[in-house]
Amino acid sequence: MKSKNAAKIRAAVVRYLLLALGTVIFTLPMIYMISTSLRPNGALYEYPPRFFPKWEALTLENYDYILHQSRFYLNFLNSVFVSLSSVVLAALVWLLVWYIEQRVLAKSLGRASEGADAQAAWEQHILRKQNWTADSEPGRAALARVRAGVAAMQEQPHEDVFLPALDGARLHARLYRVPHAHATVILCHGYHSHAEHDFSAQFPALYASGGCNLLLIDERAHGLSEGKCLTFGQLERYDIAQWVHWVREHSRVQRPIALYGVSMGAASVLLAAQLPELRDEIACVIADCGYSSFELEVTDAVCHGTNAPRWLQKPLARACVRILRRSGLDFAAVDTTPGMAALDLPILFFHGDADTFVPLHHSERNLAACRRPQQLVVIPGAEHAMSAQVDPERYRHELLTFLWRNTNYLWDERNKPLK
After folding, report:
1. How far is residue 95's CA from residue 97's CA, in Å, rounded to a whole number?
2. Mean pLDDT throughout 383-405?
3. β-bridge mates for residue 164, sequence order
4. Looking at residue 412, what is its pLDDT?
5. DSSP code of 351?
6. pLDDT tens digit sequence for 163-213
7. Burial class, 176, CB count within 10 angstroms (exposed 0-12 / middle 13-18 / buried 19+)
8. Residue 209 CA, distance from chain mean position
């Protein structure tokens, strides 16, 4: 204890000595400027030079000369004008930066927009991602799957569940009960998305399998869940933990519990699974196209979205992260990789090799950090969150097989050929 205190004292002494030295270095030029103004012109060329003039040599003749010049006041007003103009310009630039920051924060962290034509916009988004058209065969098939999945979500009976988050926000989810189910899958959608968007292709197969209840949550600041802003997994992990506790505490909703997330939801479920309180509560995790690190994802987004030179990409990414940190959140904590080695449970990764928004190396980075062997399913040609649309048969088979093996629920279709 004494050695620690002595080290702190030495560090404080060194710090204050450096501050004192810096003060002297920065104030000496100003002191010399004032001292030279109080000496006659001839004294400026004395050798050796004097830093402080003699008392009897002090004079105000330099000030008298300046004040009696005819253009002094004009020059003074010009200086005032330039100074005020600089202040006003700096204020305008600051306001512009503040406005841009607020727009970035509002667009990046604000609530997801929910227009009446959200479903139509999502269908167009799916087609645009894969360069499909509504008349092409893969485009027609994808739209049919999406519409069938959304219809199934709306038609099947479900319960609206609400619970408080740790920060007081009211969270919402829909619970789909399956008779004789002895497992529950918690489904977490992605950034500015909805369960209907991210799980429409998978929902009919999951519901028809007959072995698991499905809890489709609205992430904070999405759907019916409260929250002023989303946090890319920093707070979402604790929201997911609250849903796990809710499932555990309600006897009608059976365990074991599987976590299934897409994009931001995938990163959130991996972060949630790393929480000490959930170590013995989770049977398995499915992570579809999740990012491994928020800062790395911003770098990739800057690279893909701006085509900036390589040397400029990281500074731009750091600037974006710094702007987002103005919300008061620490996005450096959103990094799934450091805790992957401690996860002693089965994990299934999905990722498209054509993903330009969250590139494949994010899942590869997480996979490489795992201590136990895990499975990564790479879907050729799939863009971000499009694996279930590009190769639905393989996706369905890998998903249901993984859940069947790791939650031990009865998969009624496991012996039937894929349709």
Report:
1. 5
2. 94
3. 170
4. 47
5. E
6. 999 999 999 999 999 887 878 999 999 998 889 889 999 999 888 877 789
7. buried
8. 34
| pTM of the full structure | 0.74
CA distance 274 to 82: 57
One-letter amino acid identity for 377? V
Provide the terminal-to-terminal Cα distance of the chain, rounded to the nearest Å: 70
Tens digit of each residue's pLDDT (9 = 90 or more) over 297-315: 888 877 776 666 777 777 7
**Residue 270 corresponds to which tokens in the numbers above?**
């991996």
Tokens 């924060």 map to which residue? Answer: 105
- Res 70 pLDDT > 70: no
Quick check: bond before 138 cis, omega within 30? Answer: no
Please name the residues in contact with 57: beta carbons below 8 A apart, sequence gap of 6 or more: 39, 40, 43
Q: How many CB atoms lie within 10 A of CB 218?
A: 22
Structure tokens at 74: 């004009």
Tokens 């590009």 map to which residue? 390
Residue 270 CA to residue 334 CA, distance in Å, equals 10
Structure tokens at 384: 């971000």
Average the pLDDT over 406-412 and give the result. Answer: 61
> Helix 294-306 to helix 310-325 angle, to the nearest 10 degrees?
130
Are 344 and 354 in contact by the 8 Å Cβ rule? The answer is no
Share of the chain above pLDDT 70, in %: 86
Token readout for 350 is: 């999905």
Mean pLDDT of 336-363: 95
Q: Alpha helices of 110-188 — where are they, by DSSP H? A: 118-129, 137-155
Tokens 């500015």, residue? 192
202 and 402 Cβ atoms separated by less than 8 Å: no
Q: What is the pLDDT of residues 233-283, one digit of tens each?
A: 999 999 999 999 999 888 565 578 999 999 999 999 999 999 999 988 999
SS3 content of the chain, % helix, strand, coil (to 5): 55, 10, 35
**Residue in the block written with tokens 């004032």:** 34
Tally Cβ neighbours within 10 Å of residue 362.
25
Q: Are 382 and 349 in contact (CB under 8 A)?
A: no
How far apart CA 351 and CA 364 sit, in angstroms, is 9
Closest to 342 (Cα-Cα) out of 375, 369, 373: 369
Continuous segment of H or E residues that includes residue 184: strand 184-188
d(CA 109, CA 122): 20
Give ∠ CA 363-367-371 in degrees, rounded to 5: 160
HSE, CB side, 13 Å, CA atoms: give it for residue 292. 20
